[in-house]
């Protein structure tokens, strides 16, 4: 009977240990997922900042050719300022979308000013901006993938229980604005 007692006690202790490890793992999962979402958003912001650093140079190279287009330059400047004053992921995502629309209008100026298309500085900046846009697109997709994983976890069982215990809720997607869904028409 003594050997049976120790065997039973060992089995019960093993089950409790396995349950404790599973509980700790599930408790830590939403926190880890939220940190992954935050880290990926930081990558999106890095790429957005890269884009925003290019904008003043692009504006200056265009300004010499299209000085009368002050409304476009003002729109770009205001959209850029709005991004840096926006708070939270939602606000920054909206501001980034507004800036993308303003940049599209700026880049469309080359249709009205053919000599701009041949300006080496403008072309180099345009290529840099295109590269930045591609990086932003990749980082936005990665961010949205992390958000999807987190949101799925916090809305399904047993994740909903552990997410509520840790205070982790769903995150917002970085969505494409209505203006961005329509591709701009650019002629070369």
Can you tell me about this structure?
- The protein has 188 residues and is mostly helical.
- It has one domain (42-181).
- It has helices at 2-63, 70-85, 88-107, 109-112, 114-117, 120-155, 159-166, 178-181.
- Helix 1 (2-63) runs antiparallel to helix 2, helix 1 packs across helix 7 and helix 2 (70-85) packs antiparallel against helix 3.
Rounded average pLDDT: 87
Separation, N- and C-terminal Cα atoms: 90 Å
Largest sheet: none
Topology, number of strands: 0
Alpha carbon gyration radius? 25 Å
Distinct helical segment count: 8
Oligomerization category of the chains in this entry: single chain
Task: Tell me the structural class.
Answer: mainly alpha
Question: How many domains is the backbone divided into?
Answer: 1
Given as residue ranges, the uncertain stretches (5+ residues, pLDDT < 50) are 183-188
What letter string, H or E per element, gives the SSE order?
A: HHHHHHHH
Strand content: under 5%
Helix share, percent: over 70%
Keyphrases for this structure?
mainly alpha; 82% helix; 188 residues; 8 helices
Write the layout of secondary structure elements.
Blueprint lengths: L1 H62 L6 H16 L2 H20 L1 H4 L1 H4 L2 H36 L3 H8 L11 H4 L7
Quick structural summary:
Helices cover 82% and strands 0% of the residues. The protein has 188 residues and is mainly α.
């Amino acid at each position: 009977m003594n050997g049976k007692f120790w065997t039973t006690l060992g089995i019960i202790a093993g089950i409790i240990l396995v349950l404790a490890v599973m509980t700790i793992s599930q408790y830590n999962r939403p926190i880890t997922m939220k940190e992954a979402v935050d880290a990926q958003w930081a990558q999106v912001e890095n790429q957005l900042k890269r884009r925003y650093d290019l904008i003043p140079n692009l504006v200056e190279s265009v300004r010499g050719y299209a000085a009368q287009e002050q409304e476009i330059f003002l729109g770009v400047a205001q959209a850029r300022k709005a991004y840096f004053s926006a708070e939270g992921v939602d606000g920054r995502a909206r501001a980034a979308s507004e800036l993308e629309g303003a940049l599209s209008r700026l880049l469309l100026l080359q249709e009205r000013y053919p000599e701009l298309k041949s300006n080496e500085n403008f072309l180099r900046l345009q290529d840099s901006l295109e590269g930045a846009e591609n990086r932003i697109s990749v980082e936005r997709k990665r961010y949205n993938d992390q958000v999807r994983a987190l949101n799925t976890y916090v809305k399904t069982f047993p994740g909903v229980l552990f997410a509520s215990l840790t205070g982790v809720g769903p995150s917002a997607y970085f969505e494409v604005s209505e203006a961005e869904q329509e591709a701009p028409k650019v002629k070369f």
